[in-house]
C-alpha cells in the first residue's frame, strides 16, 4: 500500500491541528514508552512510529494516549474474532475482499485528511460474516499505522451504497447482533477514534 505523505507545508498545518510541538514530542514519546514499560498487562511495545501515531491521534494528550493504547491492546485480547486468523490468504478473508473494497485512497484532502472509500461489490452473494468484515477493516488500519510516516489530520470515510438494494441492505444489517455492535462501538470509540 503506497500512501502519499503530506507535503512540508501540509505537515506544518497538521502539526498545528494536532498540537504537535517538535520541541517536546521526543519527551512525550519517551514518557509514553516509559509508561508502557511499567504496564504489566500490556505487551512490550516500543515502536516509536506507531506510538507517535497514537500521540497524534490524541492531539498529544499524554493521558488520552495512555487510555487509547491500553484500550487498543485490551481489545486485541478481548475480541479475538477481530484480531486472530488475519492471514490474507485465508478463504474467509479472501471472501471479504472479493465482495467489499475498503481502500484508503493514496492522496490526501487539501486539509491533510486520508479518504477511505468503502464499497460493496455484490452484497447478495456475500457469505462473509460481519466479524470477518470488521477484521479486514482493522487489518487495513494496522497497515496504515505502519505506513503513515508523518501523520495525517484525520480520516474521511465515504460509503458507496450503490449496490445496496433495500432487501440485501436489510439482510446484511440483520447480521449485526447487539453483542457485535457493542464490541465494534467499544473498539471504535476507545481505541481507534480520537
TrEMBL record:
Q: Which GO terms describe its cellular component?
A: membrane
Could you cite one Gene Ontology molecular function of this protein?
phosphatidylinositol bisphosphate binding
The molecule here is called Clavesin-2
Amino acid at each position: 500500500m503506497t500512501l502519499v505523505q503530506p507535503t512540508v507545508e501540509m505537515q506544518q498545518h497538521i502539526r498545528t491541528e494536532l498540537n504537535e510541538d517538535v520541541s517536546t514530542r521526543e519527551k512525550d514519546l519517551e514518557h509514553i514508552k516509559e509508561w508502557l514499560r511499567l504496564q504489566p498487562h500490556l505487551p512490550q511495545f516500543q515502536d516509536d512510529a506507531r506510538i507517535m501515531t497514537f500521540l497524534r491521534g490524541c492531539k498529544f494528550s499524554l493521558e488520552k494516549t495512555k487510555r487509547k493504547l491500553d484500550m487498543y491492546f485490551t481489545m486485541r485480547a478481548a475480541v479475538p474474532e477481530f484480531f486472530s486468523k488475519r492471514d490474507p490468504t485465508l478463504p474467509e478473508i479472501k471472501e471479504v475482499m472479493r465482495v467489499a473494497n475498503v481502500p484508503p485512497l493514496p492522496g490526501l484532502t487539501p486539509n491533510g485528511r486520508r479518504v477511505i472509500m468503502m464499497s460493496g461489490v455484490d452484497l447478495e452473494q456475500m457469505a462473509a460474516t460481519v466479524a470477518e468484515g470488521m477484521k479486514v477493516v482493522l487489518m487495513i488500519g494496522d497497515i496504515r499505522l505502519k505506513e503513515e510516516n508523518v501523520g495525517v489530520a484525520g480520516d474521511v470515510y465515504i460509503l458507496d451504497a450503490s449496490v445496496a438494494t433495500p432487501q440485501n441492505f436489510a439482510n446484511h444489517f440483520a447480521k449485526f447482533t447487539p453483542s457485535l455492535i457493542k464490541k465494534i462501538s467499544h473498539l471504535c470509540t476507545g481505541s481507534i477514534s480520537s
